[in-house]
Each structure stands twice: as C-alpha cells, then as structure tokens.
Amino acid sequence: MPGNSSRKVYVIPCSGIGKMYGLLGREAALKTVKELRPDKAATMCLALLVYGDNEARKEIAGARCITVDGCPKLCAAKNVEHAGGRVVERVRAVDAFRNHRGVDAGTAAHLTAAGWQIAEELAADLAAKVDRWYDAGEEQ
What we know:
Order of helices and strands: EHEHHEHEH
Strand order of the largest sheet: 2-1-3-4
Shape: globular
Structural class: alpha/beta
Oligomer: single chain
C-alpha cells in the first residue's frame, strides 16, 4: 500500500458531533480498534482528512478502510475516498438499530445502557469485517 507500512484495516468513524448515532458509531469504532482488534485495525481522525493533512492522507493512501457513518450523508465514506483511502465497507450506525426499534439509546453526549449494548453489537460486527479484510490480504 503506498503511503503506509501496515496492512491494518482502518476503521474510520464520522465526526457526528451533536448526534447520538455519531457517538454510537465512534464508540463502536474505538472499541473495535482499541479492544477487539488492536493488532489488525487502526483508526484515523476524519477531521485530519477533511482538513487535508498530508501525513494523514499518506497514511491511508490505498489502505483498506471501513467507514462508520451516523447518518445517510455518509460523510466519512465520501471524505475517506476523497483523501485516497480505499473504502471496502460502508457501515451506518443507524442500521445497528434494526433489532432495537423504539429503544432509548441516549443522547449526543451520553449513551444509555441500551445504547452501549448496541455499540457493543456494532463493534462485534466491525471486528468481523476487520477480520475478513485483514485475512483477505493486500490483493483484495
């Protein structure tokens, strides 16, 4: 991969500041990278890519990226692609609620116990996606 020396899969959440789905997606992404798949996954601050930080762009150039967006605008997916990352999966935090209709998951600043449970489920799904792309190797 040009620009980076790791074969790690990047899990990059949207900024989603001020929205519960954004908070849930960020928490799931961080759990995936820090706890579930620290040897296979990394993350990148989306704001660095949007700002055009050269080191951040170089880091993800051609890298396999899983984006996690909180809303249908898919800002993370669009900005990662624009910055040169190869988006292999587009995940929407809102889709994690399909089995939890009507649940109070919290607010933009605080998840409830139910919200944390959904974040855990989303993180497990992200970890499985990381495994699939990591194990697929560089040619995928």
